[in-house]
């Protein structure tokens, strides 16, 4: 046990990895040497965090998720069980393409559902919600609800993750949102 963060005895933390205070790394997980993980994060069972990956604070990575080189997750991100990131757009076993990794950015507060797939080179906007099993092939707007294969926007969600109705008021928090063109943002809440 480390006095800043917890690691299960079966996890592997390579020398040089940076893990913030209050974080927990559970069974059979592996964090590579140049990975940076923020404070109060949870890495579930069998999580892999590759070199040069950056994970913000308060990020929850559920069981069986691999976060490959090229991925950046900002604060408060949720990655559901067995969701998948890619980092090469056209992988071949016989062709090494490590120099072709495409960056993927998961913005603050975004949630990715179980078994979803995120193709490399996309940005998931702040507080967006990717439904279980969705396949994201292009950038996602902030607060967008995305479902299906390929993923399509079916609505908007609040910062609390609640689907918004036409009035654009979160029924859970009372926060109000406004739509400007195709862009949803938090309205001035009083």
Automatic annotation (TrEMBL):
CDD domains: LbH_WxcM_N_like. It holds the Pfam family Hexapep. It comes from the Bacteria. Coiled coil: none annotated. PANTHER family: ACETYLTRANSFERASE, ACYL-[ACYL-CARRIER-PROTEIN]--UDP-N-ACETYLGLUCOSAMINE O-ACYLTRANSFERASE. Belongs to the transferase hexapeptide repeat family. This is DapH/DapD/GlmU-related protein. It comes from Draconibacterium aestuarii.
